[in-house]
Amino acid sequence: MNAAASRVSFFATRLATALAVLLLCTAAKAALFEDDEARKAILDLRQRIEAMRSEAEQARQAAGRTASQEAASLGKGQLELHSQIETLRAELAGLRGVNEKLSKELADLQLQIRNDAQTRLSLEERLARLEPAKVTVDGIEFTAESSEKRDFEAALAVFRRGDFVASQSQFVGFLGRYPASGYATQALFWLGNAQYATRDYKEAIANFRALIARAPGHVRAPEAVLSVANCQLELKDAKGARKTLADLVKAYPQSEAAAAAKERLAALK
């Protein structure tokens, strides 16, 4: 119970008590005084009762106004609280939307970064395949393009399969595309061997000699000289073969080809 209600209850109790007392007093005085005095006392009592009633009514009205004000204030507070809650809900929903948008943008950015990294890696791999690389063949190191290496290895693979006709075409094509290649000496050697296998001895001699002239210190040079002698023997040029073998022994005395040349020379005498 609030203060206003307590005041109203207090005045009501006080008024009831006063009425009872006054009635008792009136009855007693009526017996003791004359009628005029009794009427005067009754009038005075009525005035006092009316004053008390007025005071009680004013207290009741004041209490009502206070209760109304408190109720209005409470209602206004509830409305303000509800408004604040709705505002917070709207702000929270907005923040959730922003968070979802940022999360999606972050995921898209991460995906783009991964794709860019994969693209860059793929590009670097392709560039690496296209860029010249160092290779070592027969103990000699040189730089070769990826296509150059690929074409030479393809031609050599055909030779090793025993397709000497096709390998000749590929080696000739290779020398035409890469005349200054580090593989050129190797290409001449295998081309000469493929021609020897198909009994094209004159062309074989030409390519073996081209190898010797191009790289006389190459590890394949002694073998190329021996192959020239073999082609000469196949062409029935024993004189030319003996000279070639003698030149081989003189130019490359420590080579395995020189040992074979000595045996051939002994057999030709």
Summarize the structure.
The protein has 269 residues and is mainly α. Helices cover 83% and strands 4% of the residues.
Task: Please provide a written account of the structure.
It is a single chain. The chain has 269 residues and is mainly alpha-helical. The chain folds into two domains: 3-97; 133-268, Serine Threonine Protein Phosphatase 5, Tetratricopeptide repeat (Alpha Horseshoe), CATH 1.25.40.10. It contains nine helices and two strands, in the order ααββααααααα. The chain has helices at 3-32, 35-130, 146-160, 164-177, 184-197, 201-214, 221-234, 238-251, 256-268; strands spanning 133-137, 140-144. A two-stranded antiparallel ribbon has the order 1-2. Helix 5 packs antiparallel against helix 6, helix 7 (221-234) runs antiparallel to helix 8 and helix 7 (221-234) packs parallel to helix 9 (256-268). The protein is rod-shaped, with a radius of gyration of 63 Å. It starts with a helix and ends with a helix. The relative contact order is 0.04.
Mean pLDDT: 84
- From the N-terminal CA to the C-terminal CA, the straight-line distance is 145 Å
Structural class of the helix and strand makeup? mainly alpha
Strand order of the largest sheet: 1-2
Can you tell me the CATH topology of the largest domain? Serine Threonine Protein Phosphatase 5, Tetratricopeptide repeat
Number of domains: 2
Order of helices and strands: HHEEHHHHHHH
Report the C-alpha radius of gyration, rounded.
63 Å
User: Which regions are unreliable across 5 or more consecutive residues at pLDDT < 50?
Assistant: none
